[in-house]
Design goal:
The protein is mainly beta and about 450 residues long. The protein has a domain of about 100 residues: Roll (Pdz3 Domain). It is built from six helices and 23 strands. The strands form four sheets. Strands 2, 17, 18, 19, 20, 21 and 22 form a seven-stranded antiparallel sheet that branches. The longest helix is centred in the last third of the chain and has 13 residues.
Length: about 450
């Protein structure tokens, strides 16, 4: 099958390069190599990077591929909540500028991806519920939470097929009685249709497959929220407190590796405050664990031994060849940092109050920058949103940003790290290099008012 197959191509649990991080579906967290432009002045500089432009700010007008730091635009189809997974609903992917509406009416609780809130936010009463105060062993934990983690299928349009084709499977955590499910953004990416497989609560030999609506997805945190509508209430997991998590404590992981539904693995917390999946300045920190996770565990639950969700399984580190191997180094998104993202996705369909410059750009290595007479590595500006304050700042496409408020920013992520320290409406001073008529770059200062991002 075409597309991202979440359950195949895992290379016996290993991939190509030690010290390279991968998501649970064997997709590299960071890919690509720095551009290698010839010494041809600005024209050559542009040719080497324009095809891999990434998002630094607003994404209006940008529909590039998700490359490098996984910060590109993600299309979010709208899918019905019916129980007919094989039916072609005629949906198409949507871009930032144009969103194609489903021919099937949306459920009342669906979020309009334009940002209009039409549902309630995350119910705080379902966080750290007092009923989860009894320490459990692994057997008791499994019995308590086994019905709260569901199997997800991603269907995508494939040329030559009349209906969406199954592209892969993963996991999701049900966290409300009315069917809201947390998973990863990379699990729902490029989906024409999503379905959830749920065990019958009376007979665990029976399953039900329901179509799901994608409520919102955020590539920077690698989180997504989907929704299944049915009359019967769902059993749901309780969202815990990752601030109380300590290295060495026991944990369990529940998910669907290789479509082995409701697989429980056990381990300990190996580390805290690890890097996010995207490496983005807007990303959430991760909890490192040694419990076994594999392809298909993406979006599953990391549980403490009280039955609380303390993280969402995200990615693992793998390797192939050489004399050094990597075993049992997995990562889950910290649930405390995930909660406000989940809340925004439920209410708005995107993450609010996220400051950005309103540009797209590409990382330029120090070597390539110095070849052009620029002393530092930086970010080459490939696009400026006309509807953002940056359009009036004097910044131009083709400028190279090397610092924000005097702090060197050699990469897109480092720009985001500095920008996220501010609020929407604040101003920052950019140190830039701009090519003159002769092609020689000259240092300049530009002040930019930060605008709100809408990275979907």
């Amino acid at each position: 099958m075409n597309g991202n197959n979440f359950d195949s191509g895992y290379n016996n649990g290993y991939s190509q390069n030690y010290n390279q991080s991968y998501d649970v579906n064997n997709n590299p967290v960071q890919t690509g190599t720095p551009p290698q432009p010839k010494k041809e002045g600005k024209a050559g500089f542009v040719a080497g990077i324009i095809a891999t432009a990434l998002v630094v700010g607003g994404v209006a007008g940008f529909a590039g591929s998700v490359i490098g730091n996984n910060l590109g635009t993600v299309s979010l189809p709208t899918i019905s909540g019916s129980e007919t997974p094989g039916e072609d609903n005629g949906n198409t992917s949507s871009s930032e500028e144009e969103k194609t509406e489903s021919s099937i009416p949306k459920p009342e609780t669906t979020i309009d991806l334009s940002g209009a809130p039409v549902t309630r936010p995350l119910d705080e009463e379902k966080i750290n519920d007092a009923t989860n105060s009894h320490l459990l062993n692994a057997e008791e934990l499994y019995a308590k939470v086994k019905d709260t983690v569901v199997l997800l299928y991603n269907y995508q349009d494939v040329q030559g097929y009349d209906e969406p084709v199954l592209s892969g499977s993963a996991s999701g955590v049900v966290f409300t009685a009315d069917g809201y499910i947390i998973t990863n953004a990379h699990v729902v990416a490029n989906a024409t249709k999503m379905t959830a497989v749920v065990y019958d609560y009376e007979n665990d030999e029976i399953t039900h497959e329901y179509e799901a609506t994608i409520i919102g997805s955020d590539t920077s945190t690698d989180l997504a929220v989907i929704k299944v509508n049915r009359d019967e209430p769902f059993k749901y997991a309780l969202l815990g407190n990752s601030e109380t998590v300590r290295v060495g404590q026991d944990i369990c992981v529940l998910g669907n590796p290789k479509s082995l539904v409701s697989t429980l693995t056990k381990g300990i917390v190996s580390g805290l405050n690890r890097a996010s999946y995207s490496g983005s300045g807007y990303g959430c920190s991760s909890i490192q664990i040694d419990a076994a996770i594999n392809s298909g565990n993406s979006g599953g639950g990391l549980f403490d031994m009280y039955g609380n969700v303390i993280g969402i399984i995200d990615y693992k580190m793998v390797s192939t060849g050489g004399t050094t191997s990597v075993e049992n180094i997995g990562f889950a998104i910290s649930i405390d940092e995930a909660k406000p993202v989940i809340n925004d996705l439920m209410v708005h369909g995107y993450v609010t109050n996220r400051p950005g410059l309103g540009i797209n750009g590409q990382d330029i290595s120090e070597y390539n920058a110095q070849r052009e007479g620029i002393p530092y590595a930086g970010v080459y500006v490939t696009y400026i949103a006309e509807d953002k304050p940056v359009a009036k700042s004097g910044l131009r496409e083709g400028d190279v940003i090397t610092a924000v408020d005097g702090v060197l920013t050699p990469t897109i992520n480092s720009i985001q790290t500095e920008v996220v320290k501010h609020n929407v409406g604040d101003t920052v001073e950019l140190t830039i290099y701009r090519a003159g008529i002769t092609g020689k770059y000259k240092e300049m200062k530009v002040t930019v008012e930060l605008s709100e991002l809408n990275l979907q």
